[in-house]
């Protein structure tokens, strides 16, 4: 079962679970989101693996698709992949429309290495939300996608993001155990 099959909707019906495929699920469009700065921080460590990394990319693409207002003065996306060290995939200024952002996500290459989430969080705080020239009066969001415990300290870096009024969401991924 691919991520895109269960991502849009998972409906629990009294005795069981029904999964709607993309064809069955209504298309979601975020019409009332005028502006936001959204950064994906993606765990590219060896424990993720290439197959799961593709699932992560699919997930990211599906969460970007509803945002039709992707422009420099509207909804902007950035992406950092981390393992031992962070790797800049793209900044807020690199892509001016949704199609370009989706292509960049699709073309992202798997890194491998250790899980140093604290280093990744610090990179996002310093390079996406730390500069005065990048600050806008819009919602600031970081979406951390990881499969496990960090091998470094995340407390200080997470606190720095919080002090910058960045909302941090963590998405855990693992192999299902059916």
Can you describe this structure in just a few lines?
The chain contains 5 helices and 7 strands. The protein is an alpha/beta fold and 178 residues long.
**Helix and strand composition category:** alpha/beta
Question: What is the global morphology?
Answer: globular
Order of helices and strands: HEEEHEEHHEHE
Low-confidence stretches: 1-21
Total strands: 7
Q: If classified by CATH, what would the architecture be?
A: 3-Layer(aba) Sandwich
Largest sheet: spatial strand order: 5-4-3-6-7
CATH topology: Rossmann fold
Number of domains: 1
Helix content: 25-40%
CATH class: Alpha Beta
What order do the helices and strands come in, and which of them pair?
Blueprint: H1 3-6, E1 10-13, E2 16-19, E3 36-43, H2 49-64, E4 75-82, E5 86-90, H3 98-106, H4 117-127, E6 140-146, H5 155-163, E7 166-172
Parallel strand pairs: 3-4, 3-6, 6-7
Antiparallel strand pairs: 1-2, 4-5
Subcellular location: Secreted, Extracellular space, Extracellular matrix
Keywords: Cell adhesion, Collagen, Extracellular matrix, Repeat, Secreted, Signal
Signal peptide: 1-23
């Amino acid at each position: 079962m691919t991520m895109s099959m269960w991502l849009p909707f998972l409906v629990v019906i009294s005795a069981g679970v029904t999964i709607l495929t993309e064809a069955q699920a209504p298309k979601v469009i975020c019409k009332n989101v005028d502006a936001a700065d959204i950064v994906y921080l993606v765990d590219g460590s060896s424990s993720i693996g290439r197959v799961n990394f593709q699932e992560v990319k699919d997930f990211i693409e599906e969460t970007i698709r509803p945002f039709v207002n992707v422009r420099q003065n509207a909804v902007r996306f950035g992406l950092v992949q981390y393992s031992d060290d962070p790797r800049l995939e793209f900044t807020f200024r690199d892509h001016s429309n949704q199609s370009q952002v989706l292509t960049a996500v699709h073309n992202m290459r798997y890194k491998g290495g250790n899980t140093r989430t604290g280093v990744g969080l610090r990179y996002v705080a310093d390079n996406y939300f730390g500069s005065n020239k990048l600050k806008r009066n819009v919602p600031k969001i970081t979406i951390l996608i990881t499969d496990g415990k960090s091998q470094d300290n995340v407390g200080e870096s997470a606190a720095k993001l919080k002090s910058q009024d960045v909302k941090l969401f963590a998405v855990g991924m693992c192999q299902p155990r059916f």
